[in-house]
Sequence to fold (371 residues):
Amino acid sequence: MQNCYEVLGVPRKARLADIKKAYRKLARKYHPDLNPGDRRAEERFKQLTQAYETLSDADKRRAHDQQLDGGGARAAGAGRPDRGAPDAEFGVDLGDLGGGDFASVFSELFRPRGGETGDRNAPRRGEDVTRTLAIGFFDALRGLTTTLDLDAETACPRCGGRGEVQARTRRPCPTCAGTGRVSHLSGALRFASACRACGGEGTLGTEGCGECRGTGVLKRRETVRVHIPAGVDDGSRVRVAGKGRAGRNGGPSGDLFIVTQVRTHPFFRRIGDNIHCAVPISISEAALGTRIDVPTIDGRASVRIPPGTESGQKFRLRGKGAAILRGGGRGDQYVEVKVTTPRTVDERARHLLRELGELQPGDAMRRDLPR
Fold:
């Protein structure tokens, strides 16, 4: 016989909570679903299940301890099927082993991922919906309120979003074929538990809702009024709570997420929360300095150009950028100056340019370039 304490790695005086903790940890490690094709893991899982079955039941544990002590309690194990053959199917009925505590361990092992309870009648939140919205450059900067036409869903008022209503007569449960039990196969292991669809009764007292055709929801067109806050950028996500898909079984609706697509502007260019633009200045303005008016998203603003300004130099206007969505305030505007060369000049202008060239010859400016 196997020593169940050694199999689970616990001392003989271990409490039931410690035994359960050890079993859960080892069962997850050696579960056949996590070790496909591994016969050793499968056999180890069988041993763990048998050991926990024994130690989680007070009478079976007492008989097991007597056997370990050399007592005459072998009769406690008489008549049990041989579960040691590696090719035999090992059947476990969660309703018959160790009471609710044993079943609770297996329910944790086979619980659906993502935190779902697996109860088909439990309230479920509706799915989120994503829509794109094209807006203008200044609409993104200043914000706007608009409307969207949606293919909306609402919970069916007749069945409350369950998709089924009370039937006049009970009918066999299609999930368990009227047996009240369902089996879960994992390699050579078979686990049986009460059918969740009918609660183990084998029959159902409900039928599909005729109002929603069993879907639990009704579809309709809905016009939704949405507010786009100031400062959104291309690809920003705006959440409208409760305007997604309808929930099931009384669960809340999902949310609507609006993804903004911002059109470009011919003059302004946005980078993050800052606005960029380029303005031309003449050679004399760059050399002598001046003050110019430049467009901003709030109107025109004055910018001082100091003497000796180079082409490509940038000047910052504080607080003239886009609104900052998180944290408040606004970004800045950067004005880049482009020194332009006159294309057509009269004789007097040519004379002045020649005099300027004599005062600042180009050869002297290029003297330090590598040869």
User: Anything to note?
Assistant: The radius of gyration is 39 Å. The first strand starts at residue 90 and ends at 93. The chain is about 25% helix and 30% strand. Confidence is low (pLDDT under 50) at residues 72-89, 94-100, 112-117.
